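#onboarding

Welcome to the new folks! Below is a worked example of what a typical request in this channel looks like: someone posts a single protein sequence, and someone else replies with the predicted structure as tokens. Don't worry about understanding the tokens yet, we'll cover that in week two.

Example request:
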Amino acid sequence: HTDENFYVESARNMVESGDYLTPIYQDKKRFAKPILYYWFVSASYKVLGVTLSSARLTSALFGSLAIGLLYLISSRLFEGRTAFYSVFILPATFLHFQISRWASTDIALSFFILLALYYFIRSYQNDFKENFDVYMFYIAMSLGFMTKGPPAIIIPGIVALIFILATKRLKFLSHLRIGQGFLIFLLICLPWFATMYLLHGNEFK
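Example response:
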């Protein structure tokens, strides 16, 4: 897939140059996506060597983890064998199967969105009493943001908001600890963005 070139080559340049902060593709800085997926592919290269298979292993791993995560979500939302069937339905879905084989950010983004929704469901079912679940909701979105940007915040955020409005549980909005969530987001995302701005200035901005 053509999008794979960006991550396969940029991660290879990171391993060869030792610069794990600035993605370089065809001798040009590439700031189109945040850094996390490049790090995943680079780590795979370091362990397994620089090959297309090791580059794609990151997506295969996230695609596999998403199946188990869907089982956990389904088991909380539905009764009977629905969760069991979901384990077979998701990997049999062509799009999931396909993008789990590409060295691109899509399946990792999908995993982090599912992870955020999983912890939102846990929080809701526990009346938002467990700080860990609420914080993990924000950590998952922040890691997704560092993988592919705003969709990782927008999608689970809108789902959570619509669900709370539809169920008329507006009191839970304050229990979401949005201020603390924003601090978590800054702690995870700001260091790399600030470093890039300090290193590259207006070119990065």
